[in-house]
Design goal:
It comes from Microvirga alba. Keywords: Cell inner membrane, Cell membrane, Membrane, Transmembrane, Transmembrane helix, Transport. Pfam families: BPD_transp_1. Its main location: membrane. It is a single chain. The protein has about 575 residues and is an all-alpha fold. It folds into two domains: about 20-45 and about 360-565, Orthogonal Bundle (MetI-like fold); about 70-290 and about 300-325, MetI-like fold. It has 26 helices and two strands. It has helices spanning about 5-10, 20-45, 60-70, 70-105, 110-115, 120, 125-135, 140-150, 160-185, 190-195, 200-230, 235-240, 245-255, 260-285, 305-320, 325-335, 350-390, 395-410, 410-420, 435-455, 460-470, 475-500, 510, 520-530, 530-555, 560-565; strands at about 335, 345. Strands 1-2 form a two-stranded antiparallel ribbon. Helix 2 packs across helix 19 (about 410-420) and helix 4 runs parallel beside helix 9. The termini are far apart. The relative contact order is 0.13.
């Protein structure tokens, strides 16, 4: 027998491919160290006496009893629930008509509408909230003219009215994008069949279109609810004497450095969030539809003059109101002298000159921290997303749940958990850049993870199998086949992660230090010292930088801003 025959007849033993095991081990380590361990530590410390670590013999309910004995705690709890529910309901009601009009009515400049709707999501929350004070505060511009011209008295901007108004107009975009995208993709045969059966246009809308919009509506409402329950910036500026759990946590950390009390508040916040989310999920499970068929044709658009006028007035009016804070921020940034009058008395570039040297380090910190966290999310999210979609193993549901858990936790809760866990002991990270990167990482990993899962699901596994049969290792197949195919999904998720982290506030406010101040902290500090115009200048620069980065990235991957966020 010849050598060639031997080589053909006897299959050669391939070296074991250890890369999948390395990826699996890395996944388990990260999940345990940065997700599960901090959550368990926070849970334990909530039962520890003030200033002490948890011990079986010293466990106490004192931190939770404050919700039964302290009026401040009780009011904060009630305020959080009321504001969260109200914002979610109003944001949904505001977004639904806009989503329907954009998806189903012939309107000009639809790409522009979708792009403009993204701006409230990437704007620094503090300065946007303060813009409402400029407009509707005691000496606000609108307040003055409403009183002077119409003798109308606006409700106080501080308190429930201001917090709910600002949150609704900054968060309705989530519902708008989700529902608009779903209505565009709906198979038109469903509505055509209803019309053939004799249903009127109104009946089709109520019995076919709106029911189909419920699942994406609930998905958007879930995100709005999570954001509203964990929002810190808006209540801190506009809350006045209306405290919520997020501001209560902030005071416990920065006022008393009471990590145990903050842990208890965080757990109560998490409990409220989970109950609300489970309720929405239960409703959504009862309404599952197949809305996308084999046809590539879209539903016909309404072209009547009346509906076009109503659609344009509503959509552009809503956008104008939602973008009003950003316009006020830019306007205020040029006010060099504003001595308590209705309008500034002098304009110029002085605020930008003043903040130029002062914004370099915070902006640099924001970009560095966001870039490192984004890179970590890309690497880890790609590995875990691929494993979750391609591999079958026991406990896959636990992997999905663990990665998505920080996404349903308010950002300030994640900050408290990491601060409690890594404040002391063998791994003390408080005050370092690393703890901020970890906080950003665990809060945004779900974006990359979900993008990769969706992208991998669209790839035929036979392509990877062919590479393996040809002798390629798992790592080589990932490098040459899988990653290039899912690269657009990865890049889209990375853009969302990076741009939203630049002005991130809820997690940052718990973890930052003097060395690692970000632009959102720089804005907050200027507002605390009444340097409103300087804060507006920093906010304007931040918005401009973020938009430029998004536009540049979208040009590279060939997707619009609205497609990235929808």
């Amino acid at each position: 027998m010849s050598a060639s025959e031997t080589s053909i007849g006897t299959p050669q033993r391939r070296r074991p491919d250890i890369l999948p095991y390395i990826a699996g081990g890395l996944t388990i380590f990260v999940l345990l160290a940065f997700l599960i361990y901090p959550i368990v530590t926070t849970l334990a410390n909530s039962f520890a006496p003030t200033g002490e670590t948890f011990g079986i013999g010293t466990a106490t309910l004192d931190n939770f009893q404050r919700f039964l004995t302290s009026s401040m705690y009780q009011k904060a709890l009630v305020n959080t629930i009321v504001i969260g529910i109200t914002v979610t309901v109003l944001a949904t009601l505001v977004a639904l008509p806009a989503a329907y009009f954009v998806a189903r009515v012939e309107m000009p400049f639809k790409p522009l509408i979708l792009s403009l709707s993204i701006i409230p999501l990437i704007s620094p929350p503090f300065i946007g909230a303060y813009a409402w004070v400029v407009l509707f505060g005691r000496s606000g511009i609108f307040t003055y003219y409403l009183q002077e011209w119409f003798d109308l008295q606006m409700p106080p901007i501080y308190g429930y009215f201001g917090v709910i108004l600002a949150m609704v107009l900054s968060h309705f975009t989530f519902v708008f994008l989700f529902v608009q995208g779903a209505l565009v993709a709906v198979d038109p045969h469903l509505e055509e069949s209803a019309k053939v059966m004799g249903a009127s246009r109104l009946r089709v809308l109520l019995t076919v279109v709106l029911p189909l919009a419920i699942p994406p509506m609930l998905a958007g409402a879930m995100i709005v609810l999570i954001e509203a329950l964990g929002e810190f910036g808006t209540p801190a500026i506009l809350g006045g004497e209306v405290y919520v759990l997020s501001t209560l946590m902030y005071f416990q950390i920065h006022g008393y450095f009471n990590l145990n009390a903050a842990s208890a508040i965080a757990l109560v916040n998490v409990a409220i969030t989970l109950v609300a989310i489970l309720f929405l999920i239960r409703i959504n499970k009862k309404r599952r539809f197949v809305t996308v068929g084999s046809t590539t044709r879209r539903a016909p658009l309404h072209t009547g003059l009346g509906v076009k006028i109503v659609a344009n007035l509503y959509v552009w009016g809503l956008l104008a109101i939602a973008l009003l804070p950003q316009a006020v921020v830019v306007f205020t940034s040029f006010a060099e002298r504003w001595p308590g009058t209705v309008w500034p008395t002098r304009f110029g570039w002085g605020n930008y000159v003043y903040i130029f040297s002062r914004i370099v380090e915070p902006m640099q910190n924001s970009l560095i921290l966001a870039a490192i966290a984004t890179l970590a999310c890309v690497v880890f999210g790609t590995l875990t997303g691929y494993v979750a979609e391609r591999k079958s193993f026991a406990g896959k549901w636990a992997l999905d749940l663990t990665i998505m858990l920080p996404f349903i936790l308010p950002g300030i809760v994640t900050g408290v958990a990491l601060l409690v866990t890594f404040n002391s002991g063998p791994i003390a990270l408080s005050g370092t850049a690393l703890i901020m990167v970890i906080g950003y990482f665990v809060r945004r990993i779900a974006y990359i993870y979900r993008s990769v899962v969706a992208a991998v699901a669209q790839i035929d596994p036979k392509m990877e199998e062919a590479s393996t049969v040809a002798g390629a290792t798992w790592g080589h197949t990932m490098h040459r086949i899988t990653v290039p195919l899912i690269a657009p999904g990865i890049l889209a998720g990375a853009i969302i992660v990076f741009t939203t982290l630049i002005s991130e506030m809820s997690t940052t406010v718990m973890l930052y230090s003097a060395r690692w101040k970000t632009v959102s902290i720089a804005i907050y500090e200027r507002l605390e010292t009444q340097e409103t115009a300087a804060a507006a200048a920093i906010g304007s620069v931040t918005i401009a930088v973020t938009l430029l980065l998004v536009l540049a990235a979208t040009r590279i991957i060939g997707k619009s801003m609205s497609e990235l966020f929808s």
